[in-house]
From TrEMBL:
Keywords: Coiled coil, Membrane, Transmembrane, Transmembrane helix. The chain crosses the membrane at residues 56-73. GO terms for cellular component: plasma membrane. Belongs to the UPF0749 family. This is DUF881 domain-containing protein. Residues 266-309 are annotated as: Disordered. Residues 87-121 form a coiled coil. Residues 285-309 have a biased composition (Low complexity).
Amino acid sequence: MTDSQLRPESREPTGRTYAPDFLTELFRNPLDPGYADAAARRQVGAAVRWRRSVRAVSLVVLVVLGFLFAVAYRQTVAAAPGRQQAREGLVAQIEQREAETDQLSERADGLRAEVARQRAAALGTEAAQLHELEAGTGLGRVRGDGVVVRLADAPPDEQLVTDPGLGPPRVIYLDLQGVANGLWASGAEAISINGQRLTATSTIRSAGQAILVDFRPVTGPYEVSAIGPDELRKRFAQTRIAATMQQVAADTGVAFEVRDADDLTLPAAPDPRLQYAQPSATATPSPGRSVSSGASGPSASPDSFGGGR
């Protein structure tokens, strides 16, 4: 067989070329290229199938989430009228109760005035002394000159307080407590907050963000009216609570104003429910201690004393 007969067979393409050192090449690359190509194709197919699976799962998740959002939105929209109706019903009940309370208060004032007239007619000369006692204790209507302290929340566009040490940009019950105590200390003879007369048993509290005076809510702006001597405003301006409220107003934007007022009229407070201490019939005094009998008079509630912020 000649060389010309071997040449056509040597031109046929083969996937592998052999180096002169056949054994070394066999150990270096033992896998036939066909197997390598098949493995590469399997890897590519697996990657394609994985991407398709991820896309399918993502599509299913998006569909489920969209369905859940649609159901939640529909339920929220469907329940909105019910919540609005319930809110309107509660508001209507509150307004109705407040109107009934106002009517009962007016009726009580009328009955109180009638009782005062009947009592004055029965007491004669002692009626004037009783009237003075009622005015001093807050159970009688009084008129006179004095001052009005006005407090109001900061406007919405000025409520930008970020330092928690400065307090909230609104009036709190401690502010009203401090102002009332400052006016008492300055010589005030009668005080009312938004028409609510203060007595020795009055309370100034908070329920959430609402302020209660004798368990009745008051809303801003708050006006603390006080009847007292001519120098009442000057004395109050020198108190610690006045300086504190001025600083609070400068830091938080809360309104704090003090002005003189002529011919103020403060209403009478409702008759208090007094409680009297009675000795127990079976109580035995312990050694070194004595049991006192008798009734205790009205005492100021702890809630009526406060030092402001």
